[in-house]
Amino acid sequence: MILFDNVSKRYAGGHEALMGLSFEVTAGEMVFVTGHSGAGKTTLLKLLGLIERPTRGEIVVNGASLARVRQRAVPQVRRGIGMVFQNHRLLMDRSVFDNVALPLSIAGAGHEETARRVRASLDKVGLLDKEKSAPATLSTGEQQRVGIARALVGKPPLIIADEPTGNLDPQLSVEIMNLFTEFQRVGTTVLIASHDLHLIRHLSKRVLVLDHGRLIDDFRPQAN
Amino acid sequence: MAKPRKPPNRLRETAAANQSLPRDLRAPGVRWNAWTRQHRQSFHASLRRLWNRPWSTGLTVLVMGIALAMPLLLFVLLDNARSLSGGLREAREFTVFLKTSQDPEAARMFSTELGERSDVIAVNLRTPAQGLAEFRQLSGFSDALEVLDDNPLPSVLVVTPRLDDVTLEPALLGKLRADSRVDMVQYDAEWRKRLSAILRFGERAMLALIVLLGLATLLVVGNTVRTDIQSRAEEIAVVQLMGASDGFVRRPFLYAGLWYGVLGGVLAVLAVGIVELVVRAPLLDLLASYQNRFHLHGFGWRDAMMVITASAMLGWLGAWIVSTRHLLAGRPKR
After folding, report:
1. How far away is chain B from the Cα of A151, in angstroms, using its nearest Cα?
2. Distance between CA atoms of A110 and B30, rounded to whole angstroms?
3. How confident is the model at residue A121, as a pLDDT?
4. Can you name the residues that pair with A18 across neighbouring β-strands?
5. A93: three-class secondary structure by DSSP
6. Which helix (H) or strand (E) holds A192?
7. What does the mean pLDDT of chain A come to?
8. Angle formed by the axes of helices B189-231 and B246-289, nearest 10°
9. Cβ of residue A63 closer than 8 Å to a chain B Cβ
10. ipTM
11. DSSP element (H, E) containing A51
């Protein structure tokens, strides 16, 4: 599902965000990427979403070699990836329903199909009764769940999340992570950048550890 | 929950498939429906957006309307001036003033004589009595004219010559000038040349004005759309991450530009209409003093539609330039 082959990223200022990164994530896996802030987690996710291009190396996502993806085809790659952000990035001037429907309206889905899939998606994150609410009226945890429902609604084979629990208390964090493990259980590949080591250890999924742009560890903790 | 999907192929096995990069695999019909649906959505959404910000919309439309109205007014003015000069061009008569010594009878004989010539189409005689009556009516000097003992006006022959278009000074003119019975011949060739030159200059000026003010409307729309884009930068970034194409991002702004253009065009046409209405009465009076030889040309439906269409295109173009620039600026650099 994801392949990094000797990927380096140097930003225009000369900052080496990633150096010689190689790893592979198979379809249906759930993987955490961790490391101190500035270790390259966010850069890694940006490369996956074609927000940045690597300086060197090859990345394959969803069967597409990203280096060969022209600018015109970028949207098509992104439609295969559900993205979850730390600050959820909901559009505050639209209802919960419209936020979740966004990927579908981008893909040009019909009215009925949209309604059906948005409700299914909201149901999965337990917010079916909030579809008419404005995001601002929801709690932080609920907002993040709306963000997850939005990432989910297009049924992407890959979901990537950047610090999805960064703004949440431990209790909510566990709930959110449980949601992600549920998605993995039905075959979606999930890649989560997080530095919540306690939570990661608890879930006993594969963990990639980055340090100053290098991959220093790749292990699966045993739950105790 | 979605039904468990079959895990896709391992990536290393898809190297061949990598050659053909991600494409929209939906059937053309489905894609067409999606496309028209998105257009419908943008159509309504952009109108709602403009409606929700009446001040900013109104201001933009007003500036556009006024900027467009100016060259339009000049156009109407020139159009009328041109038809006026056209009227003159058709009025190719010589006005022949006979010496006062020629009595009406002699004038009539002269008129018949001229009328028999092959290079004369028609001769129209105005006796001094007719001339006086006309003068009295038009000049407002009727009281002053009462004082006169004699009619001081000469007989006038209005001669319509058969002219080939090239010669400005037909032979007939020289002949008439040489005739002892003739006091003077008035022939407006010089004056007409000058008028056409003025009109040509006016047309150039109008073209320049159209280009400049068209550019101004482009900038006005562009600037408005630019601030609109800035205020929605986060939304744009998010939909792009969700896989929105450039077209999808651009579409609502293009529609907004189109609306600005249409509304600005309508306003410009209205402005021209109002100005016409305001100047109509005095202008008609003025024209009446020219014996209604000239007619006022207004702004027709076709002109109005053309202006609105052109203005809509300008608005669309302004929005396109600005939104494309924004999209390009957001591209990652390799």
Report:
1. 8
2. 10
3. 94
4. A9
5. coil
6. strand A189-193
7. 90
8. 150
9. yes
10. 0.90
11. none
pLDDT one-digit tens code per residue, B259-269? 999 999 999 99
Of the candidates A79, A42, A159, the one whose C-alpha atom is nearest the C-alpha of residue B241 is A79
Task: For chain B, say whether A13 makes contact (Cβ under 8 Å).
Answer: no
Note whether B11 contacts A24, CB cutoff 8 Å: yes
Q: For B144-199, how does the pLDDT look when each residue is reduced to its tens digit (9 = 90+)?
A: 777 777 777 888 888 877 766 545 566 777 888 888 888 888 776 667 677 778 88
Please give the residue that has the higher pLDDT: either B272 or B135: B272
Q: CA-to-CA distance for B71 and B217, rounded, in angstroms?
A: 12
- Give the distance from residue A14's alpha carbon to the nearest chain B alpha carbon, in angstroms: 13
Which of A52, A72, A108 has its CB closest to that of B332?
A52
- Other CB atoms within 10 A of residue B334 CB: 8
Kindly give, in sequence order, each residue whose CB lies less than 8 Å from that of residue A93, ignoring residues fewer than 6 positions away.
none
Q: Pick the residue of B19, B21, B41 with the most A CBs within 10 A to test the interface with A by mutation.
A: B21
Which positions ≥6 away from B300 have C-beta within 8 Å?
Answer: none
Contact B63, B224 (CB under 8 A): no
Place of tokens 């955490």: A32
Q: Is the pLDDT of residue B6 over 70?
A: no
Cross-sheet strand order for the sheet of B94-98 = B120-126, B156-161, B94-98, B182-186
Pick from B217, B253, B264, B250: nearest CA to B327: B250
